Amino acid sequence: MSICVRALLHNKRKWKKTLIIFCLLFFVVTLVLSGISIANAEEKKSEELRGTTGSSFVVERNLSTGGWASGSSGSYSTQEFITEEMLQTISAVDGIAGYDVSIVSMPYYFNEAGEPLVNVNGNGVNNYYTYGSINTEYNQLFLSGRFELVEGSHITENIKNGLIISKENAEQNGIKIGDKITGINDPYNDDPEVDMEIVGFFEIVADKEDEATMYDASTLWDYTDYAFCSFNTMKEMAVKYDDGNKIQEAHFYVTDAAQLEDIIKEVQNISSINWDNFIIEANDEVYQNISSSLSDTSTLIITLITVIIIASMVLIILILSMSMRSRKREIGILLAVGITKPSILLQYVIETLMTAVVAFPLAYLFSRRIAGEFGGLFGKAAENIIVTSQYFALVIVAGTVLLIVAVLISCIPVMRYEPKEILAQIE
Sorted alphabetically, which keywords does the UniProt record give (predicted)? Predict the structure, then answer.
């Protein structure tokens, strides 16, 4: 009788043991496949995160190394400002996705009828806390997720007179995309009027009660009363103010947060910039916080998979060891009639693998259906968790090796005896 036939007959005769091992393998493989898929989804999310969390570095004037002078408005730093040449040189470094430069002011805005745009906050102050930005897409308020552009487009270097306000303010003032707006930095100081065009609306995503995501530069302005205008437009509005139209700091955003430190080092090696006059600092707090959370989840998943595999191995070895003790007589007889120990071991391996051949594919099909449900326990969207054939192949290889090891370990107590010793113990 061939080894495979003996293995098949034994599994049929000892169907209860076979069913227990089948259920155990089915359960373990299902959990392992689901766990690997969740961990992989976590890794992909981490990779996406590295390019979308707004990890950046800021270059700003180093006032401590500059001189000071006095003017009609008081003392001011004579330290050099950031130039457009500096911006172009730094932004050309590999790994920098883009940059934003902002001049902040509090101008007033008027519609085509000359009526002022009224604030939502109701404090009686109708000017807007405004960023004059080169690329609003890279403004920290948008990249951090506090604001979301919901209509229109971002301001870019190609848009010379654009204005973005909150959708809530736009609705209150009856403003729509394409409307003409006049901006004045200070209408009571004979500042110039600058023509603008509404190019976009934003909505506030940040929780106003969450101090980690909500802040105001002044208690006079709520997020709804923020605005963004083109950089050149802000310079025109602030033309009468010495420091008001010059670049004091610039934010550069990287494509991969993990490369932030290397990129900063490369920027600091730019010889055309006198770094004694400027400070460069990393800003990846958002990435580090979220990345830490993702890492903790991945560690938990890997730990659970490891515990499940170890526990299942112990159980399988115990089940097979108990089965071996009950098969001493069979083993003694097989050895006595000339069947070698390797042949007997091979039979027992085949018995277990026959069960695995059925359990593994069924577990694969089942895990593809329920992996998303498991992912929900870790806050993952079901559509992001996919059990692939590559994972299945990995589990087959690893599972087969572990099963063979389990069979060999369970056979050690019996196989170390000679046939006469085994039969004598039975008698």
Answer: Cell membrane, Membrane, Transmembrane, Transmembrane helix
